[in-house]
Amino acid sequence: MCDDDASGVLAAAPRPVTGTAVDPVSLAPVDEVVITTLMDNTFDGLLAGDDRVRRSRLGVGLVGAPQFEDGLTTAGLRAEHGFSALVRVRRGETVTTLLFDTGVSPDGMVSNAERLGIDLGEVQGVVLSHGHFDHAGGLAGLAGRRGVRGLPMTVHPLVWTRRRLAPPGLDPSALPTLSRHACESEGFEVIERRSPSLLVDGSVLITGEVDRTTDFERGMPPAHQAWDGAGWRHDPLVLDDQALVVHVRDKGLVVLTGCGHAGVVNIARHALRLTGVERLHALIGGLHLSGPAFEPIIAPTVSALTEMTPDLVVSAHCSGWRAQQALATALPEAWVPSSSGTSFHLAA
After folding, report:
1. What is the pLDDT of residues 26-60, one digit of tens each?
2. What does the angle CA 117 – CA 121 – CA 125 come to, to the nearest 5 degrees?
3. Cα(33)–Cα(6) distance, rounded to whole angstroms?
4. Which of 272, 154, 316, 297 lies closest to 220, judged by CA?
5. DSSP H helical segments within the chain, as ranges?
6. Angle at CA 146, nearest 5°, toward 143 and 151?
7. What three-state secondary structure class fits 186?
8. Which domains does the chain have, with CATH numbers?
9. Is this model's pTM higher than 0.90 or not?
């Protein structure tokens, strides 16, 4: 599809949205949320933690290696171009565990969970941020490791969209397409919602479609295409993109993104507007600011996030090193590098 296609430009244009939400969401505050990165693009076993950040040990995970005297070596954790996070929410004495995305490979996320001593049998629900394969590839491993009969999986209805990459001058490359039939055959109970969803007795919000209100977050470039039933069309918005939101009592919102295709500023503002909560406490996940199509919006993104004064920013997965550097410079007290196996403890 051409760069100057009128429908694509119109679809990507921001919509002016002001005032409070028409259908506000009453998000119950929680006492604590612990977000553990089960899979990210990097693993650094030498990173230091603090009272809110707990790092995995360098030597976690013994594996066979005959070249050593005892036949073993410490493997650390796997890193791959994908994202997965375990979310534990505590409200009073009740603790609920959700899995947000599953990484790219069938065995990567479950291997890391095993090495970390995490029992995936405790997972009470799965949330997919969107349908791209680097966030849904580990579903097979989850099903094979623990069994998922009746396990609810919350998705946007467009998560099953066929997509491809068609860069100019190159042959198009199909992206793996998630199959609803296959997921249900494995035992997942698929729950489709376009609108916001409340989980865990009203204390976890899944945003559904995100309002696009900024004038700089325009979405994916023309090479990202989707099949509309009649042909391939530019898919700038990735409308199935959604985030997970928790309100930590007396602290503010914790926003967890997969790739942030809706634009991380759009997502944060949408969450604040939906819930009526005035403060962004933490932002964790992929910000999709890597590569030539997105690096031009790093500056306005960082500027907008700085105005929100979050206490914690963890830019993971597809954020890119230039964005990491900019965030670290602008928010030195809030920014923390991500790594597979890191847990973020946020409490009232």
Report:
1. 999 999 999 999 999 999 999 999 999 999 988 78
2. 120
3. 44
4. 297
5. 6-12, 108-115, 133-136, 139-146, 180-186, 264-275, 298-308, 321-330
6. 65
7. helix
8. 32-44+78-347 (3.60.15.10)
9. yes
